[in-house]
């Protein structure tokens, strides 16, 4: 076995999460391989239904029934919080009981999550403080007073104005941006080594989004955590990520560092995504009836399972007899840049 | 849009439009305050033009769009619409019969394609509903008209017996568009039509809207919060903040040479799809003012980095600083703000 990478934090190998429904089987996650290192920000991009959120739910074992992890491994390299040893303990998250004490010790403590909708992520009938303190008391042996002190400190860290008052507010008393700050405080109060952010700014306005993105970057430096940033917004990915994985129909189709994904994308789907977004610089020149280059067609319905490459019906570079017959393997045309496409081998 | 169209006279003229929502308290539901959702909006849209209306949530852009169609009754103001049959009318004061006649020419498409279609109606009923209600077609003729509309928006006419649940978000948005187009309108209010869609579908719908505009000579009021989308589709852009219009200019002028600090802040906040541009982000502190209890003077002053004493006490006028470029700022003439070119270069 090769020398173990000291900085490895998470390794997903061949993850498959399926939903068995009366209408058929939805292959929500269909063979995902990912690697994450400590303090890294991995951006996961894809359109709705591509399996990006379900991959994250699989990691925390929160896949709602009738969803089930069918195959694969999710290896989490857990380093003890007391700093007694640097040697990471490897935990295979797929093997844990979703209701067991082991995964509950990891959830919110080692891996925590920020959700898209800040209103639904919080309980409406309990104060912000109660909800954050719950996580602290659950994972750390501290008194209520100490937990309250930590909560106020945490709210201050997420730059909440007037944390002593906000701690006793109910979520509905806060604006969208403030609520998202509270949710981030809740996620970070136990100093997790991995934060999963599932479209945390999609429901927010641009100016608030800019504030939250800034905040998350600063907190990442401060706490030294890794962030898995799930979004469909390429602008946000450019802003946040070190590495990017592009997903389509339950698979990672391309993975590379952020500059490569933006300046030298190889997969026709990634290229199509780039061309689909209206560019701000278009506003500088007055063109007659500018048109966007679109990816033709739409994402196939989730029950179907296409033969060959899942993107072939929409692909402008489709090779008949190859793309619709054989599923492409993951290849590495240049070091650190992997792509699942027949054009590259 | 061609320059020829730019010289045409306005299709729609909005004069001092106001929509206040009363705040009621207590047993007798006494009015204790007003939410000034739309406060003194004046602008016009030329025939064949797209006017983009941008602003953060709660700035009144949707309320403005709805008041113009009188989907909600405006509190005061004039909405002058040049109707092909009725001539120039004030939509705000029309009686019910005339309103129905005008609505044939003023239509709307909505943000959420899941909430805006009745799940118990087939496409034939949905797209045919305005034709039935306005007694424009029935029977075989109605079906033919619906088929033509579905074809226009890129759906197969065979689908007309199906229900909305069988369609994806992008397809549903096309159905909503077919319904709006059915009575052959002149003017469409597009209320965030692409913000609920994925990027690849968003691009398809934007292209479709542009094609239809050229083919059918449509005029759009395009309400959105995404400045890149608005830049792409609009001929002119209006920026709203807390119920008031703060800047209005043609697209190229507004994005290269913004004159209101709020416009500059909005532009600099957009995450650009370019990882080289991630440093030095200017961002706006604080939050949008409460329209029920707005700040004194210029509503933007508590968040504005160029604020001086006069901004705190006196509300600036909405003035034409350059031909066709309107700004509501005391310092519009002296400030030199960063446009998209500078933002792209500096960031």
Quick summary of this structure?
The complex is a heterodimer of chains A (345) and B (347). Chain A is an alpha/beta fold. Chain A has helices at 52-59, 101-106, 128-139, 144-157, 163-166, 176-188, 206-223, 234-240, 258-263, 268-276; strands spanning 8-21, 24-37, 41-45, 67-78, 89-92, 111-114, 194-198, 226-231, 243-248, 251-257, 330-334, 337-340.
CATH superfamily of the largest domain in chain A: P-loop containing nucleotide triphosphate hydrolases
Query: How much is the radius of gyration of chain B in Å?
Result: 21 Å
CATH class term of the largest domain in chain A = Alpha Beta
User: Percent helix among the residues of chain B?
Assistant: 25-40%
For the largest interface, the chains and their residue counts are: A-B, 52 and 55 residues
What's the rounded overall pLDDT mean of chain A?
Answer: 88
Query: Strand fraction band of chain A?
Result: 15-25%
What strand order characterises the main sheet of chain B?
6-7-8-3-9-10-12-11
Oligomer: heterodimer
| CATH architecture assignment of the largest domain in chain B | 3-Layer(aba) Sandwich
- How far do the termini of chain B sit from each other? 32 Å
Q: Can you say what the CATH homologous superfamily of the largest domain in chain B is?
A: P-loop containing nucleotide triphosphate hydrolases
Mean pLDDT of chain B: 89
Return the CATH topology of the largest domain in chain A: Rossmann fold
Order of helices and strands of chain B: HEEEHEEHEHHHEHEHEEHHHEEH
Principal-axes geometry of chain A comes out as globular
Q: What would you call the shape of chain B?
A: globular
The helicity of chain A comes to 25-40%
- The chain-level structural class of chain A is alpha/beta
Question: Can you describe this structure?
Answer:
The complex is a heterodimer of chains A (345) and B (347). With 345 residues, chain A is an alpha/beta fold. Chain A is 28% helix and 25% strand. In chain A, a hairpin with a 2-residue loop joins strand 11 (330-334) and strand 12. In chain A, helix 3 (128-139) packs across helix 4, helix 4 packs across helix 6 and helix 6 (176-188) runs parallel beside helix 7 (206-223). The radius of gyration of chain A is 21 Å and the shape is globular. Chain A starts with 7 loop residues before the first strand and ends in a 5-residue tail after the last strand. Chain B is α/β, with parallel strands linked by helices. Chain B folds into two domains: 3-105 and 185-346, P-loop containing nucleotide triphosphate hydrolases (Rossmann fold, 3-Layer(aba) Sandwich), CATH 3.40.50; 114-184, no CATH class. Helix content of chain B is 32%, strand content 24%. Chain B contains twelve helices and twelve strands. Chain B has helices spanning 3-6, 61-68, 96-103, 123-133, 139-152, 169-181, 199-216, 227-233, 251-256, 261-269, 309-313, 340-346; strands at 10-25, 30-46, 50-54, 76-83, 87-90, 106-109, 187-191, 219-224, 236-241, 244-250, 319-322, 325-327. Chain B is globular. Chain B starts with a helix and ends with a helix. The interface between A and B is large, with 52 and 55 residues.
């Amino acid at each position: 076995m090769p020398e173990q990478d000291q900085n490895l934090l998470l390794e997903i190998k061949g993850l498959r999460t399926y939903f068995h429904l009366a209408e058929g089987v939805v292959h929500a996650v269909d063979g995902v391989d990912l690697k994450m290192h400590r303090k890294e920000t991995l951006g996961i991009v894809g359109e709705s239904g591509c399996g990006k959120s379900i991959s994250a739910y699989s990691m925390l074992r929160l896949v709602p029934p009738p969803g089930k992890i069918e195959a694969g491994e999710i290896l989490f390299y857990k380093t003890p919080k007391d700093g007694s040893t640097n040697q990471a303990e490897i935990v295979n998250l797929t093997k844990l009981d979703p209701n067991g004490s082991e995964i509950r010790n990891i959830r919110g403590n080692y891996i925590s999550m920020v959700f898209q909708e800040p209103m639904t992520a919080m309980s409406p009938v309990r104060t912000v403080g109660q909800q954050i303190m719950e996580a602290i008391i659950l994972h750390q042996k501290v008194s209520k007073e100490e937990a309250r002190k930590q909560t106020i400190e945490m709210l201050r860290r997420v730059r909440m104005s007037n944390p002593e008052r906000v701690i006793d507010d109910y979520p509905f008393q806060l604006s969208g941006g403030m609520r998202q700050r509270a949710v981030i405080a809740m996620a970070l109060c136990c100093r997790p080594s991995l934060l999963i952010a599932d479209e945390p700014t999609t429901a927010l306005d641009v100016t608030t989004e800019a504030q939250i993105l800034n905040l998350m970057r600063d907190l990442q430096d401060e706490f030294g955590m890794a962030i898995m940033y799930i979004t469909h917004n390429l602008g946000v990915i450019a802003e946040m990520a070190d590495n990017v994985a592009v997903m389509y129909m339950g698979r990672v189709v391309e993975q590379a560092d952020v500059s490569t994904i933006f300046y030298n994308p190889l997969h026709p789907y990634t290229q199509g995504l780039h061309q689909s977004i209206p560019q701000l610089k278009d506003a500088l020149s007055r063109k007659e009836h500018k048109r966007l280059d679109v990816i033709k067609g739409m994402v196939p319905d989730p029950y179907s399972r296409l033969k060959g490459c899942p993107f072939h019906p929409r692909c402008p570079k489709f090779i008949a007899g190859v793309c619709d017959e054989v599923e492409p393997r993951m290849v590495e045309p240049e070091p650190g840049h992997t792509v699942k496409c027949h054009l590259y081998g | 849009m061609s320059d020829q169209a730019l010289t045409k006279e306005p299709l729609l003229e909005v004069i001092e439009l106001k929509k206040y929502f009363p705040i009621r308290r207590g047993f007798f539901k006494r009015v204790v305050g007003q939410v000034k959702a739309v406060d003194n909006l004046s602008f016009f849209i030329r025939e064949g033009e797209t006017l983009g209306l941008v602003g953060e949530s709660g700035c009144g852009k949707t309320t403005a769009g709805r008041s113009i169609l009188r989907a909600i009754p405006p509190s005061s103001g004039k909405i002058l619409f040049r109707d092909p049959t009725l001539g120039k009318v004030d939509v705000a004061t029309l009686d019910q019969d005339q309103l129905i006649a005008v609505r044939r020419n003023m239509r709307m498409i909505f943000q959420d394609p899941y909430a805006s279609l009745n799940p118990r109606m087939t496409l034939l009923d949905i797209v045919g509903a305005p034709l039935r209600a306005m007694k424009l077609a029935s029977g075989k003729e109605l079906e033919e008209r619906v088929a033509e509309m579905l074809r226009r928006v890129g759906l197969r006419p065979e689908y007309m017996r199906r229900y909305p649940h069988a369609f994806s978000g992008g397809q549903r948005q096309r159905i909503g568009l077919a319904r709006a187009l059915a009575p052959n309108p002149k003017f469409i209010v597009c209320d965030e039509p692409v913000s609920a869609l994925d990027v690849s579908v968003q691009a398809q719908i934007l292209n479709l809207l542009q094609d239809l505009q050229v083919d059918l000579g449509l005029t759009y009021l395009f309400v959105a919060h995404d400045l890149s989308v608005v830049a792409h589709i609009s001929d002119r852009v209006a920026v709203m903040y807390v119920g008031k219009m703060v800047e209005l200019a043609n697209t190229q002028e507004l994005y290269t040479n913004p004159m209101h600090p709020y416009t500059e802040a909005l532009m600099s906040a957009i995450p650009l799809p370019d990882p080289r541009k991630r440093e030095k982000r200017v961002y706006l502190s604080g939050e949008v003012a409460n329209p029920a209890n707005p700040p004194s003077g210029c509503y933007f002053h508590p968040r504005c980095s160029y604020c001086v004493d006069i901004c705190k006490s006196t509300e600036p006028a909405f003035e034409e600083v350059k031909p066709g470029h309107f700004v509501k700022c005391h310092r519009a003439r002296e400030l030199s703000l960063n446009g998209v070119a500078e933002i792209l270069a500096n960031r």
